[in-house]
């Protein structure tokens, strides 16, 4: 990938260079403990800590075998990503910049794993009461259940439980290996350097992947600081929760890369997800990559034909003029890998004179440039805007501080009284406005939280709210499949629970999330805008002081010092992972399942009596009973989600944002003040060396000024 310098664009404030220049200034002044310099170093560290949390996200999407992992491996220049374990799990593999290769695997907590395990066990127990109970931490019980699963082939009427069987088997087989990584809370295992490739075994095998919750890779080859790129698998999975992960990550992303195989084209899974993304309002954020299979396309005409077919399908999904690139990810990967197998070397040589290879290389270069430009724009306009301006303000303060030193050292005599009076006035002025800022934030916090409360209640109102209106429509339309002849009531009842749960989750994905996720983003945007409007005047106070300082310097040196344009403050909502509405709707606790199993067993007496048309009665009454239970569960789940969304996400994010703004204002205010006593004392020591020092300060100021260009986020 191109580095920052290759395109002349800075994607991040030059914090390291700024810190280095401040250290050099301290050496020049022989004053490493200068309060003012120490403050600026601390402010830089705080900014860096905040920027570590700021991420521009890129989601790489596409169906299985489309080439997502190959594309990312081409970016990294090595085979770092492996395809996930399939039906049981579909984690989003995230990649960030790191000094060395690291793999961070987050394992599920014991409590979460136990809930999932017991829920799957309850489903299977509905089909066969001989299925033994099992606690995962009991080795003998694990062995007994595994033996039972091996001895009991799936019957036709229990074939719907294949996923539960596979999940249980994976847990039983892999538990002894995973137990060292499981705890009462989520635990992260990190492999570094050459050992970082160990993560691949965990994502490739079901018996290991089933214990994972998240995977983060750090790679030195990923050169865009502050950027996270993710391999999103699961759009082909029959499990709707896998699609949810893709949907929710994509909705939080700033840019989406959708990979389409030229050999396979657009499939039904692609159409489903693309229409979903279009409804989420993400159409303008998508770049399509048609991944060329050079073994399939020998002529440009063949590529043109396949491309036109894919573009026609994209137009049917809503993209009248899709923005796309065509290149071979595998060809690029082989070109970038440091070590090639004999087969890979022969493949690369075979493609060397391929008619399409040059077109692929040109498209890859253009793709890189556009991706880099989009990232620069996203970082400057969204996540980094407030921090950029904070760094700009700090840079100006340091510049003025050095200019003041130069003026002082150059003057034969200097009247300090006016300067001291100005600093005293400045201190009183800033103290006054800090109190006002605190009052504004405290009073505004209540108003902004009320705004959030109103917005959340409007979404979840029982009458007229978007969420419940959609759920009511789902319950009215829910139709359970008719039972087969000679059905088993308890098995059929559990099948219906599974059917209803899957239909509910798909409804949430396709109908509710497409309106709920944009509404949550809108609420965050509104709150951020209101807060920015409230605090902007207080940052303008700091800029006003800059103007006063320039006037004072002009008077002292009888020369006009031009001031730079005052940057406006702009802060973004903090990086907090949103609460997932879909996983709240999982409807799979063991207690719920066992209560429904008892309901099914109660129908055995009716069947034994051979009452009239028991099959129809069972179906109709079960339909009503399941709808009643669903509504009852949804009442609790929706309320639970609503409160978590309000308190743990929106309110918590607002509080964090206000705290960040106050800290940044205080840092900027302190940077406007100087400890005049210690400053004068040090300057007296330096006056005898001013002939040597003044040129060195001028050279330092020149180097410092070069950072101004890189401090412009535009």
UniProtKB/TrEMBL annotation:
<dbReference type="GO" id="GO:0005525">
    <property type="term" value="F:GTP binding"/>
</dbReference>
<feature type="domain" description="Dynamin N-terminal">
    <location>
        <begin position="58"/>
        <end position="279"/>
    </location>
</feature>
<dbReference type="InterPro" id="IPR045063">
    <property type="entry name" value="Dynamin_N"/>
</dbReference>
<dbReference type="Pfam" id="PF00350">
    <property type="entry name" value="Dynamin_N"/>
</dbReference>
<protein>
    <recommendedName>
        <fullName>Dynamin N-terminal domain-containing protein</fullName>
    </recommendedName>
</protein>
<dbReference type="GO" id="GO:0003924">
    <property type="term" value="F:GTPase activity"/>
</dbReference>
<keyword id="KW-0547">Nucleotide-binding</keyword>
<dbReference type="InterPro" id="IPR027094">
    <property type="entry name" value="Mitofusin_fam"/>
</dbReference>
<dbReference type="InterPro" id="IPR027417">
    <property type="entry name" value="P-loop_NTPase"/>
</dbReference>
<dbReference type="GO" id="GO:0016020">
    <property type="term" value="C:membrane"/>
</dbReference>
<keyword id="KW-0378">Hydrolase</keyword>
<keyword id="KW-0472">Membrane</keyword>
<keyword id="KW-0342">GTP-binding</keyword>
């Amino acid at each position: 990938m191109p580095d920052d310098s290759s395109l002349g664009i800075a994607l991040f404030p030059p914090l390291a260079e700024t810190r280095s220049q401040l250290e050099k200034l301290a050496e020049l002044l022989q004053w490493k403990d200068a309060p003012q310099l120490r403050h600026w170093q601390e402010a830089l560290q705080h900014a860096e800590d905040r920027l570590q949390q700021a991420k521009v996200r890129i989601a790489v999407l596409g169906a299985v075998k489309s080439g997502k992992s190959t594309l990312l491996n081409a970016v990294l220049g090595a085979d770092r990503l492996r395809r996930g374990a399939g039906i049981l799990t579909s984690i989003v593999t995230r990649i960030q910049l790191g000094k060395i290769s690291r793999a961070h695997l987050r394992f599920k907590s014991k409590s979460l794993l136990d809930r999932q395990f017991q829920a799957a066990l309850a489903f299977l127990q509905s089909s066969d009461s001989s299925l033994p109970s099992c606690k995962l931490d009991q080795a003998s019980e694990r062995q007994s259940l595994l033996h039972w699963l091996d001895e009991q082939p799936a019957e036709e009427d229990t074939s719907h439980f294949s996923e539960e069987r596979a999940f249980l088997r994976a847990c039983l087989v892999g538990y002894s290996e995973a137990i060292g990584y499981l705890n009462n809370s989520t635990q992260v295992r990190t492999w570094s350097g050459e050992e970082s490739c160990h993560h691949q075994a965990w994502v490739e095998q079901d018996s290991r992947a089933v214990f994972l919750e998240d995977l983060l890779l750090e790679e030195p080859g990923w050169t865009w600081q502050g950027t996270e790129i993710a391999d999103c698998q699961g759009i082909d999975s029959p499990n709707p929760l896998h699609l949810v992960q893709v949907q929710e990550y994509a909705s939080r992303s700033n840019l989406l890369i959708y990979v389409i195989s030229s050999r396979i084209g657009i499939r039904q899974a692609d159409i489903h997800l693309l229409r979903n993304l279009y409804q989420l309002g993400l159409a303008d954020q998508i770049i399509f990559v048609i991944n060329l299979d050079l073994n399939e396309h020998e002529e440009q005409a063949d590529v043109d034909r396949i491309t036109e077919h894919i573009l026609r399908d994209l137009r049917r999904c809503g993209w009248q003029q899709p923005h796309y690139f065509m290149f071979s990810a595998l060809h690029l990967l082989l070109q970038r890998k440091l070590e090639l197998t004999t087969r890979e070397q022969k493949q690369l040589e075979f493609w060397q004179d391929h008619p399409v290879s040059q077109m692929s290389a040109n498209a890859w270069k253009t793709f890189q440039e556009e991706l880099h430009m989009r990232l620069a724009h996203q970082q400057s306009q969204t996540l980094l805007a407030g921090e950029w301006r904070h760094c700009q303000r700090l840079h100006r303060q340091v510049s003025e501080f050095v200019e003041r030193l130069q003026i002082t050292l150059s003057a034969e005599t200097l009247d300090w009284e006016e300067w001291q009076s100005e600093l005293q006035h400045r201190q009183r002025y800033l103290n006054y406005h800090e109190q006002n800022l605190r009052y504004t934030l405290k009073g505004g916090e209540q108003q902004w939280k009320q705004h959030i409360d109103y917005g959340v209640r409007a979404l979840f109102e029982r009458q007229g709210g978007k969420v419940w209106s959609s759920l009511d429509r789902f319950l009215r339309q829910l139709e359970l499949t008719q039972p087969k002849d000679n059905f088993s009531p308890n098995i059929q009842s559990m099948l219906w629970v599974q059917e209803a749960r899957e239909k509910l989750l798909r409804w949430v994905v396709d109908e509710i999330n497409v309106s709920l996720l944009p509404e949550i983003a809108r609420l965050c945007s509104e709150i951020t805008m209101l807060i920015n409007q409230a605090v902007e005047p207080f940052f303008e106070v700091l800029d006003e002081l800059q103007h006063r300082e320039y006037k004072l310097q002009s008077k002292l040196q009888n020369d006009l010092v031009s001031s730079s344009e005052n940057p406006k403050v702009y802060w973004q909502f903090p990086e907090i992972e949103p609460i997932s509405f879909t996983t709240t709707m999982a409807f799979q606790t063991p207690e719920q399942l066992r209560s429904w199993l008892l309901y099914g067993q109660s129908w055995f007496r009716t069947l034994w009596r051979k009452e009239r048309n028991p099959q129809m009665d069972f179906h109709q009454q079960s339909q009503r009973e399941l709808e009643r239970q669903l509504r009852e569960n949804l009442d609790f789940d929706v309320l639970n989600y609503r409160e978590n969304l309000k308190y743990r996400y929106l309110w918590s994010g607002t509080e964090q944002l206000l705290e960040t703004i106050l800290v940044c204002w205080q840092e900027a205010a302190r940077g406007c003040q100087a400890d005049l006593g210690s400053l004068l004392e040090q300057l007296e020591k330096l006056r005898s060396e001013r002939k040597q020092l003044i040129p060195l300060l001028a050279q330092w100021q020149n180097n410092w000024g070069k950072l101004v260009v890189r401090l412009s986020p535009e």
